[in-house]
Write the structure tokens for this entry.
Amino acid sequence: MPVSVVEAVPEPAREEVPHAMWQGKVRRSALESAVGAFSRLANYHRLEVRDLARIPRGPALLVGNHNGGLNPVDGLFLVHYYRTCGYDRPIYVLAHDILFRFKPLGDLLESIGVVPAHKGQAHELLEGGHKVLVFPGGDIESMRPFNQRHKIVLAERQGFVRLALKTGAPIVPVVSAGAHETMLVLSQGQGIARKLRLSKWARLNSLPLLLAAPWGLLWGPTCALPYIPLPAKITVQIGEPIAVDACDGQTLEARASQLYTQVEQTMQTTLDQLYSERIFPILG
């Protein structure tokens, strides 16, 4: 059973990111090491991050499009964020709880602000004044076929807008172009996944077939193998924050669908603009 993200873990004072209301496991030294390590990957992908200053100082719900399978390319903009804004305002990233079943890996992830996406986690973080990064599309979006890389696929998952409406946290679109060109998804395998009822026992909706170096063809569980990403240029656009007024009950339900559509359309428009600038796949 994964350790709860709200458990207090004693750490030396010099190691802790200073937050009065958060008693998590994030360590400044771990964040600095992660930024150093992922800087190489950011350089490899010629990462460009636009309008980083749009991320507010207070609580915010950052909503990103999901790309590249299990390759952590969607979080590369955090390299620029921490180098620009420092380490005292970490962004917590919600991730599939399967990553936390191996405790040493779970502890490592929590030390850099990656937390299991359990019900209530994000709400508590936002109420505590923190920033949370979510990828609503999950594997439905991150394993979409290569020819759909131009599309935002949030899969009608409206949990994130309900979270914003409950807390009043602004929604900040984080749109990435090029990240889904780091490997080639040939087929998503949603039909097979449904027949195997993967969503019931593994919270997965895809059983993809993909082409990735050095393995060649990968299918199903083998897609979890680490691969060498293609050197695609990645551009990340931070959108204007969408103000959200806190509400509940029937008002929340009435506004959820409208807000979801607004976010999805805003992200799609941004992705269309980013792809209009690209001349060739991978090269950018």
In short: Residues 1-23 have pLDDT under 50 and may be disordered. The chain is about 35% helix and 15% strand.
